[in-house]
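Journal club prep, notes for RB
We'll compare a predicted complex against what the paper describes. Inputs for the zinc ion case:
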Amino acid sequence: MIIKLILIINSILNFTPLSESLNNEKISLLVIYKTGGFIHKEGIEAGKKLFDLICNEKNYDCVISNESTYVNSKFLENIKVIVFLNTSGDILNNNEKIAMESFIRNGGGFIGIHSATDTEYGWEWYGKLVGAYFMNHPDIQKATIITEKKHHFLTDHLKDRWSIKDEWYNFKNFNPDINVLLSLKETSYEGGENGDYHPISWYHEFEGGRSFYTGLGHVAETYKDSRFVKMIEKAILYTSSLTTK
Ligand SMILES: [Zn+2]
């Protein structure tokens, strides 16, 4: 009896802690770039190359496609994060929407890039997941970005103030639960309409899953900018729930 008990205690002590077993799990991404509205030809091509590069370098399993049929419960069983790369308009049918909702509710991750906020306006759940909807934008130009979360894992590689050229979205219907990582300094460029509260990258926990969005990513150059690339690499870890915060 005592020997049996010792064996049981030993087997408990030798059991791999949850955090370690999670770290050993392979990251798998489904990158969707389907469009039902505006087509960001340049941003999609550059984004595909970036995800391809990251997946090869880090040995992640990645499917990069413009087919939304991958958004089904069977396929998503082996996926950690769904990325909407410059998607637009209505792209998912009802079954695909249900599959995506249960994926997030089961702890899945979501990354939205640029026009991911110009996607699925009629699907309220998605609006809350991505965190806001696109309203309009001025011409492409350089703007100053304020790093709001200087000590957060996702943005601690960035300077307090930095500038970059891209297409700057104005947003509507912000989800009040988003945590703002980066804001636009509207006085640094022409055409900002969100005023003092103009988030441009954010994250939040949503219905059991983790979401990250960045408004950057219209121009191809952004996908080669090391500051952006590093933030995306970190966003993959965050939304895969491999980081503590
Ligand atoms: Zn754009």
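Talking point for the session: The two ends are 43 Å apart (CA to CA).
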